[in-house]
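We emphasize that the prediction below concerns an isolated chain of 180 residues; any contacts that depend on oligomerization or on bound cofactors are therefore not represented. The input was used exactly as deposited, without trimming of termini.
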Amino acid sequence: MVRLWLLVSLVLAPVYRCAFDHLFICEKDHLTRNVGGQDAVEILEPMAKDPVDFVRQGALIALGMILVQQSEAASPASVSTRAMYNKIIGDKHEDPMARFGAALGQGLIDAGGRNVTISLQSCAGSRNMNAIIGMALFCQFWYWYPLAHCVALAFEPTAIIGLTENLKVCSGCVVCDDDI
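Result of the prediction step, given as a token string:
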């Protein structure tokens, strides 16, 4: 999660440095609970309504990164964020930068059918250089929009698919008692 905030800082750095510093401090408190960054969402939502286009675009993308793979039950802010994305994308009079930020944010929230998350580490905990390079390239989309596709290099699958010894899909259910 800390590395994700470092990435969000690259997106928001030219925009609101002091707000990001507060955002980072708030999120560090949530690292052990992983609640979808409610404090971060509370800071980013007003920024998503800012009159400056670059600020809005960065805030909309950052909201997508924070709320990736969050359901409506796990994070109530995802409902209002999705509604805001739909409103911005659907309004043809909206600024193109805000529409692009909303489209990217909505794509990040629903990435991989909500079965992936953004991770810069491998399962073993070592650095995933492909993901790091992909996110570094993604942060340069300001200058060349096709670089936005590089965010997919940092996606880590989170689905569990149970198979029998005959490679048939199991019909059982997995229960996780961990507070994740």
